[in-house]
C-alpha cells in the first residue's frame, strides 16, 4: 500500500510540474508579445531635421562663381597636403544646413545691427554668448562637417564653437572691426566652456592705481624734528624679529595657497593640444584697437594673443580671404606674428584685393595680375528683432557656474519683480554655503536697480536709480523694523533740505547735508530711553524718543568774520546748555567759544530772572576788546533757544520720514510693479487694447460695407458683357456658373479648415516630442508653460473640428438658399420661372 501511495504522489507531482511548465510557457509567450520601444536619446541638436523649405535658393545651390571658388579651394588643399603632409586637413568648404558645400569665407555675412549695444566688440560678444546655446563638437579633435549659416544658427539658438565664431565675426565686421574666424586648438576648459575654475568677472576687483607719494620740499627755516634717542641696536633687533615673523607667516600662507591650488588643479587632459576650437581674432588698427586680441565666443571673454589657453592655430578667414598659418606652434600662440601680409608666415588662398604688401612691392614693376575676387556671401543679412535682442537667453534664462559663484540671467519682464541677473557667491568649491547674493533689477516702479544680501552679517543693501519718491539712493539695513541700525543715502540734488546720507541706530542718528544755504553739513542727534508714559502716546511728537543732545556742524561762510561764523553748535537738552564753537581765524590755532546756560524765566518766588554774566561763558581768541553787553548776549540766547526748537522739530521730521520710507518700501516690495514705456506697444496693455479695439471696429466697418455692396451676380455679368438682351440659355448658364463657383468656395473653405487642423496637430506632436527630450532638465515654470500650450492647442484643435463639422452641415443649406435667391432675382426670374 505504501508503494502505491508513493507512486500516486509521484504521478501527482509530475502532473503539477507539467501544468506549471504549461503556465510558464503561456506566460512567456504573452510577455514576449509585450514590447516597449525606447526612444532615441538625442544628446545634441539634430541639424538634419530642420525645415529648409523656406530658405532662399542661394542656400540650396552654388552659383558659377562659387563653384569655381570650390575648385580653387580643392586645388589649394591638394598643394597644401603635398607640401605639408604632416598637417591636419584644412577647414575649407563644409556642408551647410541644406547639405551643400560652401566656402567658409562666404558663410561670413557682415551686418551692422541698429542697436547701440552691438556697436562695440564687448556688446556683440556678450549678446552672442547669451543668445546662443553651446553644443560640443561631434568629435573633439576634428572640425565639424557641417557649418550652418549665421541666420540659421540665430534662428534655432544652437551652435558649436564654429557657429558661434561665424555669427560673432559677422557682427564685428559689420561694426567696423578687423575681425577673423580662427580654427585652432585650445585647452579643455575653453573647448567645453568650463568656467568652474574661473573667477566670476563681477567678483573681480578693479586694479587700483597706486599714487606715488609726493616728496614735500624741505623748508629752509623749518623746525628740526627732535632727536631720536632710541637704541639703534634694539630697533634693528626688533625689525629683524618682525621680519622673521612676517617671513614665517608668508611661508605658511604660501604653503596653504599651494595646497589649495593643488587641490583645485584639474586632472590631466589626455587630449591636451589636440582639442579643436574656433574663436575670433581682432587685429589692431580699425576702430582704434591698440593691440590685437582673441575673443572666446562661448564666454565673451577677451584674451591676449599670448594666453596659455590657446595652443595653436591652423587657419584664419574673414569674408574676403583665407590664410593658413605657416608658423611653428610648439609654444602655443605666444610667438606667433599676426601680420597677414607676410606670405612666409601666412599663406593666403586668393590674391585678389587683399594682395600682401610684401608681394605688392616686389611686383610693382611687373604687369598687375588679375586675381579672383571672393564671391558675395550666400547668407541673407542677419536680422535680430527687438524682442529677440531683449530676450537674449534661450527661453529667457541662462545659468553660468563659476568658481565659488553662480550667475543667473533672465530676460527683461520675464520675472514679475523685474529680476534680470543674480550672482550667488559661495564659501566653498562645492557651492553649498552661501556667502553673498547680488540681484540686479530693471524696469521697476520703485526704481530699485540692485540688492545685495550678506548671508553672514545678514545685512541687506538696496540701490536705487534716480527717480524714487523720497529721492532714495541706497538703503542698508538688517531688519525693516524702526529704530534699528540702518543707513539711507539720498540724491541730495532732488531734495529741498540737501540731505545726502542718514545713519541711524537705537541710540543716535547722524545726518549729512550738502549745498545748503545755511552751510549746515552735519547733524548728530543722541537719544535717550522712552518713559512708560510716552510709550502710551501714539502718532504724536510726544511719542518720539527723548532727545539728549543735538550737535550741528557748519561750513565756513565767507561773508562773516571767522569769530562770528559758527562752526559747531551743540544743544545739550537735558543739561540745558548750548555750546558754540566758531571757525578759526587765519594764522590762529584755537577758535573762539561760547557756552550759554539756560534758566527758567521765573524763579520759585515768581520773580523774573534777569540775564547775568554767569549765564554765558565765552572765550575770545586774539581780541583785546571788552566783552559784549548783556543785552546782546540775551538776544543771542533767545535766538539759540528758538534754533533749538527748530532743530528738535527737524529731528522729529527726520524720524517720521524714516518711518514713512520704511512703510513705502514694504508696500513696494509687496507689489513689485514694473513700468512699461509708452513706446513699447507689445507690453503696454492699455495702448495695445486701444489699438486692437480700433482695428476691430475698422474691420467690422469694412466687412459691413462689403456686405452692403455685395452682388453675387456681378462678376459673372461682367464676363457675359451686355445683359440687356439675355436668352433663357444665358440665364440658365449664369445660374449654373454662380452655383458652381459657390460650391468650389465651400469646398475650399473646408480644405482650409482641415489644413489648419492638421497644422495644429503636427505642432502639438512636435511640442510633445520636445517635452519628452527636455523633461529632465525643465524647471517648474517650463512645465507650466508646456501645459498651458497643450491646453491652448487642444482648445484650438477642438474649435477647428467643430467648425469643420458645422461647415459640412451648413454647406448644403447655404447652397439651397443661394439657388432660391438666384431663382427669385429679378434679373433671372422671368427666364427661370419654368425651371423652378
Automatic annotation (TrEMBL):
Keyword Metal-binding recorded: no
Name the record gives this protein: Dynein regulatory complex subunit 7
Highest taxon of source: Eukaryota
Gene Ontology CC: motile cilium
UniProt keyword Transmembrane helix, yes or no: no
Principal place of residence: cytoplasm
Domain CEP76/DRC7 peptidase-like: start-end pairs: 276-349
Example of a GO biological process term: flagellated sperm motility
Domain Dynein regulatory complex subunit 7 C-terminal: 724-831
Record keywords, A-Z: Cell projection, Cilium, Coiled coil, Cytoplasm, Cytoskeleton, Differentiation, Flagellum, Spermatogenesis
Coiled-coil spans in chain: none
Domain Dynein regulatory complex subunit 7 MORN residues, every copy: 394-677
Region Disordered, annotated ranges: 244-266
InterPro entries: CEPT76/DRC7_peptidase-like_dom, DRC7/lobo, DRC7_C, MORN_DRC7, Papain-like_cys_pep_sf
Location(s) in or outside the cell: Cytoplasm, Cytoskeleton, Flagellum axoneme
Family statement: Belongs to the DRC7 family.
